[in-house]
Amino acid sequence: MSQTEQSFGFASEQDAPIPYMQRIRDYYLALGFDTAYRWAPYAAVPFQPLTKPLGACRVALITTAAPYQSDKGDQGPGAPYNGAAKFYTVYSGDSSIDHDLRISHVAIDRIHTTAEDSNTWFPLPQLRRCAAAGWIGEVAPRFHGAPTNRSHRITLEQDCPELLARCRVDGTDAAILVAN
Questions:
Q1: CA separation, residue 103 to residues 52, 85, 120, 147 (Å)
Q2: Measured between alpha carbons, how far is residue 52 from residues 3, 91, 131, 160, 163 in Å?
Q3: How many CA atoms lie within 13 A of 90 on its CB side?
Q4: What is the largest CA-CA distance in the chain?
Q5: How far is the C-alpha of 168 from the C-alpha of 107, rounded, in Å?
């Protein structure tokens, strides 16, 4: 590295970001799919501004984490990819209690992540703390699970309308999507 680069505070060439997008594409191919995963590149994002302050909003949590199923093999921290633990329909759970959700069913970089901190994929306890502190109005009565079945069509035509309907039934003002 040149002195000029050092004076700018540049990191060394070895300190490069992990190319996670390419790694995930490669991983899907290694799982046996004919084509690499393609993210949905929307030109316009369908999000809406809040109609009231966050401190007055009922907030729902939507996660792609799966409920633990003891009969589906290893799903703990460090578990290899486990397609048997995948779910294919939207599910909901009581937001007032803790749940055992796992992420062994998603394609993640298992070399550089440990999956030991469940708050990274299911921060429901933290969301309840935010409500208690007044940062949000309240936690919606249910959290929701969004399937990761690798189909844009099913996600858009089936899962998203179902998630929206459940959030509306719960009187949700805002939702936090924790995609894994």
A1: 33, 9, 10, 12
A2: 51, 28, 15, 23, 21
A3: 20
A4: 60
A5: 30
Degrees, nearest 5: CA angle 164-167-169: 110
Q: Are 34 and 150 in contact (CB under 8 A)?
A: no
pLDDT at position 7 is: 66
What pTM, to 2 d.p., does this model score? 0.79
- Is the per-residue pLDDT at 71 higher than 70? yes
For residues 61 and 126, what is the distance between their CA atoms, to the nearest angstrom?
11
Tokens 């999507």 correspond to: 177
Give the per-residue pLDDT at 5. 53
Output the CA–CA distances (angstroms, integers) from residue 142 to 7, 8, 61, 85, in the order listed: 52, 49, 8, 22
Percent of the chain residues past pLDDT 70, beyond the cut: 92
The tokens describing 8, both together, are 């700018």
DSSP-assigned states of every residue in 106-160: S---TTT-----GGGT--HHHHHHHHHTTSSSEE-SEEEE----S-HHHIIIIIH
